């Protein structure tokens, strides 16, 4: 497909998406299935155009004076892709599956493309209904925060300390233009290209040799804040594919023990290959064999650190792991679902460290700050007066002007301190 034909395809997908009010991924999938002639690169390019148009929907509609799919794509080409009027006109010829030629109104709008007089929510490229909440949360930086969120996300990788260093990896991947991470000492960041696509990192020799893993910088910070030390016994309770498990192994320098488990054993499948590649030898994968089987029973009360990576939407997992009598008591007491799920995750991790046993008390303080990042529970190395990091909320803005982190610690005696 020619670049002009890809633009026509993006307009077609957007029309289907807006008219039928369906997810972009579904519209793109149906378009690809109906047009077998489109190769993988064509489908990726069309998807990039569609998502970029949606990211710049507010500003494109304002500057073009047109909220049709065609207007959104043309505005995106001018604002995000940086194409001039002549370049866009050269793509819109109406020949060989290209979009129709530009109208006089479109030419005028592209010639003086600007959002200088637009409302703040338009400049931030966020929905109008969301702007009051965004402005209340970020104040004067709300516009820049919205613009950062509207940009395509970069790719972060974590240098594997067991095999290399960040400086050495920086030299090996110099041809891809990496940048050192702003917060994590092991992070490298790759910005998306002009077409919105990032580098093909999984074909690099250093990836096959275990020199790095693709991992968001925020997740790297979570493992650092967990406070795991060499020689400790660490449990990754919701290990999944094992990204944080591997990061913990690198931090501990292959000294100690890490038990990785997950209620869904299928999610642990990729961890075996990743472990072999990474060189981590202290990790033991524990797979639940059946319903009700507890794979960590033999180390109950021995853990120095328990990491719980839990999403709020995974309530069913926590319901199944929680004690039956607590389930009914919380439900009858009218405790909100979000609070119930957070309480159970915190309770289960604290039982693993030996600080608590039995079902959690209904009066236990709820972990209300649980977000999409992580709940981590950590004990001190002496294990005499363990304290638990019961909530972490990390925000890493893409424009790197600030880093906001909120932590809540709770000691064995129930006293709390905020950091």
Give a written overview of the molecule.
The chain has 419 residues and is an alpha/beta fold. The chain folds into three domains: 3-118, no CATH class; 155-214, 2-Layer Sandwich (Alpha-Beta Plaits); 218-418, Rossmann fold. It is built from 18 helices and twelve strands. The protein has helices at residues 3-20, 24-34, 40-55, 57-64, 69-79, 85-91, 104-111, 120-123, 131-138, 142-150, 166-172, 205-208, 217-225, 243-251, 269-278, 315-321, 324-333, 337-352; strands at residues 155-159, 179-180, 187-190, 212-214, 233-236, 257-261, 283-286, 305-308, 375-378, 387-395, 404-411, 416-418. The strands form three sheets. A five-stranded mixed β-sheet has the order 7-6-5-8-9, sandwiched between helices. Helix 9 (131-138) crosses helix 10 (142-150).
Low-confidence stretches: 312-344, 347-395, 398-403, 408-419
Shape annotation: elongated
User: Reading side by side through the largest sheet, how are the strands ordered?
Assistant: 7-6-5-8-9
Radius of gyration: 25 Å
What is the compact description of this entry?
The protein has 18 helices and 12 strands.
Features of the shown structure:
Rossmann fold, single chain, 419 residues, alpha/beta, 4-stranded antiparallel beta sheet
Helix and strand layout, with pairings?
Elements: H1 3-20, H2 24-34, H3 40-55, H4 57-64, H5 69-79, H6 85-91, H7 104-111, H8 120-123, H9 131-138, H10 142-150, E1 155-159, H11 166-172, E2 179-180, E3 187-190, H12 205-208, E4 212-214, H13 217-225, E5 233-236, H14 243-251, E6 257-261, H15 269-278, E7 283-286, E8 305-308, H16 315-321, H17 324-333, H18 337-352, E9 375-378, E10 387-395, E11 404-411, E12 416-418
Parallel strand pairs: 5-6, 5-8, 6-7
Antiparallel strand pairs: 1-3, 1-4, 2-3, 8-9, 10-11, 11-12
Helix pairs in contact: 1-2, 1-3, 2-3, 3-5, 4-5, 9-10, 13-14, 16-18
